[in-house]
Protein 1
Amino acid sequence: MGLSQDEIFEKVQEALIDALGADDDEVNRGATLVGDLGAESIDFLDIVFKLEKSFDININREELAPEDILTNDDYVKDGVVTANGMAELKRRMPWADMGEFEQNPRVQDFGNLLTVGDLCNYVGSKIGGES
């Protein structure tokens, strides 16, 4: 089911417009789901459902939101993700760009990390890995 990057983006964009009521020009690859598009935790359930349906994939919530890392004392000290925590996030979320978050890895800012582009990379990794 080889979809191009553009085809993946179009389907992800459609799901986000539908789930969040955003305008198509707002849903660009660099837009953050929470900060720019106003997604709330309840919206993620809808987004995941729409992406699963659209791409015929299964999405584990932990893959998109590894809360078990963010609430683990081994990975977080004083509200900041430790070096071990960053390594674990990168291992679990290789499709996400952690560069900006890594400069100031406060747990409270993690929700504002994911961009539309990251979501496209994630979906691409899911459909690329299933044959």
Protein 2
Amino acid sequence: MAVRIRLQRHGRKKRPFYRLVAADARAQRDGVFLERLGHYDPLTDPADIVIDEEKALKWLRRGAQPSDTAKRLLSKRGIIMKFEYEKLGRPMPEDVVVEEGVEADDAQPTDAETVKPETDSSPDEVVSETAAEEEE
């Protein structure tokens, strides 16, 4: 039996709410499923994504193939990356922390945002010193 991790659509017309489920690939979109893994609400700002990481990893280990949208949601939560490292037999790097869809590497300040180290003199003192040097 081929298992897919995919979304089930719930909610009323034009107000979608999705459940992330593990289901037989032959089953209907909103039909029978094997296990509920979480939910996704695209109408909130930011979108509400709740996924049980252990259940998702369990199904990925068993060979379940995520749909494109499910893979995107799992990636946002860092579950796909964790599964890839596990598959390679490597531990997760400690410096990579996924929080609200932003990796720690992305949170580092750029060159323009880096804080310059403070000197012993204030900017006013530096200006007055350079002005004094120019007068001489």
Protein 3
Amino acid sequence: MTWGRTGVAVAALVLVLIAAVGCGERESADDQGFHQDVVSGSNGAEVTFDATLVTDPVESGDHERFVVRAATGERLEVDHNTGLATRVPAHAGDGVIIHGQLYIDPGPVIGVHCTHAHTSSGCPNPGWIEFANNYYE
């Protein structure tokens, strides 16, 4: 069987379309959706949003914690489990995209956790942090 130029071009196009449709594609940032979840108090919502680190990450046990400001203005803490995910080498002023689970504690403290690919009953959806075109999950 010979493919010829047309066959090879069609096969290449099919592969490109499969990749574009979402074979392993990640969530895009939805800053307004994130903002709505915060405003409506949607504790436990799965969120994806753009943010800038306000503080450098600090190691605390098997977590690194840092404060970010979301593109929509909210200031929140990120609890990234380094026992389950790779440490994020970001610093204050760096931009990131975060995908995880929103938590709203009394106080009011808001934050995001479950930013790791390993799932559990407390973190049923895989999460991640994108920094400098790399994923930390």
Protein 4
Amino acid sequence: MNFWAAVNHWLHLIAVIFWIGGVAFQTLVLFPISRTGNPSPEALNKIATRFRWITSPLILLMVITGAINFGFRSQTPGSFPPGYVMILGIKVLLVLVIASVHTFDFVHAPEAQATPALRSFFWSRTVLVIGLLIVFLAALLRHWTF
């Protein structure tokens, strides 16, 4: 067992857990509560802005550690059967979709000051579903015999 591979995988998992947990909190707790008028739109805007600043480094960390994980995996001979490559490609494509949604939301956030909750709720649900699909694909890559 390679100690550095384990540390890198752990960092990757921590980043994913924090990111998915934050998106799940927004989608399942924060936005339903916001329909009651509490917290105020200003507070929601501050929360959304803070979350965007936290998730940016997490997404970067996920991409970097994911590439390093791939490098560790590629060191073992015969480690990429055809099914593995296909599922990994789908996973990487979905990560690119989420990174694009995050970047788009991050760049255009100041324009949406009036209704941050309504605009962000759709994207949070979408990102949560795609994120959970990515986690499922990761489990397939780890446990499925190709």
